[in-house]
Amino acid sequence: MKSNENSWVLITGASSGFGEEFARQYAAQGKSLVLVARRLSKLEALSAQLRERFGVDVIVEQVDLSSIPAIIGLHERLSERNIVIDVLINNAGHGLQGPFLDQPLDESLTMIDLDIASLTALTRLFAADMRARKRGHILMVASLLSFQGVKSFAVYSAAKAYVLRFSDALHRELKNDGVVVTALCPGMSDTGFAESAKQRITPALKRVMMQPQPVVRAGIRALQAGRMSVVPGFGNKAITVLTWATPRRFHQGLMAQVMGV
Question: Which pTM does this prediction carry?
């Protein structure tokens, strides 16, 4: 049923992949949505589908999330409209496979801007509002690669390590203020990320690849349960345990083989 409260879910990177699936699953719960991405046509098409199917309120915001002033402008516009963000899904991100020194510097810095700087700014702005209200939920979409440095994913794995550790710290900092912070650490998933990252799909990756629906469902459930983090999928959990239990030279070499690098 449609919520009558002034309570909204803001989803970044909502035009495709996990972001689109988060929108569908929260709409199915009757939640009002703020969908944020750069591709306006995809956002508008998705919002029309969600309104028609679930009867929920949907606001579309075309924002370049690599721009901090654009993020500040988004926060100001929503505040002026008295749109209360009770759930923030920090999903927007960028990845690229390849040797670090073979990548253009501007592409690496763009990845850092989006995966680290913009996520930090969004969290700072909306978490402050949540703390003032003594309620709120923030989901940080990290990655299985956040647990280790991976050859040919140097900047991406380092950026996602920031997301995970940032989330871990805020989980404890904001807990007593009524704000839940949870990290979602998915492994290889069928979201279109591999194509945009120019990633080669190995047979091993195909075997562990998950669909977005169970990954997003795991993230929402973990957030609602107040967990610090969640790794969806048995195979991905096994890799995480292996990372904790083995020397870095072993599991980093193994992951390089799995990732086809």
Answer: 0.88
